[in-house]
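Protein modeling request. Please complete all fields; requests missing the sequence field cannot be processed.
Requester role: graduate student
Desired output: 3D structure, token encoding
Chains: 1
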Amino acid sequence: MAPGRPAAAAFSTALRTHVRRAAGREPNPLGRRSDLQRSRLVVALTVALLLSFALTLPAALAALRVGQREARYEGQHRHRVTATTVDAAVADRTGSRSGAGGFHAQAVWQFPAGVRGSGPVAVASAAPAGAEIRIWVDDHGRRVAAPRPGTEIVTTAVLTGTGTMTLLSGAAFAAYRLGIRRIDRRASAAWAKEWEGVEPEWSGRPRHRGSGDP
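Delivered output (214 residues):
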């Protein structure tokens, strides 16, 4: 038998017990109200976890569709062109917006037809004036980032689904813990009250009489 099967069987048996108890179908004269409340909490937690798992796939698919739609738009409106540097590469200054390549140079390009664009582009450290660099521009010839790759879109979708499941299941567990604490406090208070009445008979100690007792 696989190592996980005994644990799975035990969990299934315990869950069925909680379901029967929560539905009032477990004849047990020693059953307490707190036991019934705990079983109902366990059933509610199980349902909430199943819902969180069920919502994971739709959330991931929705994020995937949005990413793919944005990727199609970017593919239609972002264009790769060749820019020509007009001076040698220089090191980026701290806080500069000229690029993330470590070095940059002023360059010019033509896009759309007949429109001349210019600006700093990321280059290699030894790029001389006249070097050709491939860049991305929008329909108006302005510099833009490259379209997102498909792997990034899929990763975002997976993270969205995982985040949805984590958020919902975390909220379910938090509500479960709060409910268990409340049940335990009530059960402890009820037990203490019952013990006040039983303890004198059990120990033989006379009951405490208040000032109004005869």
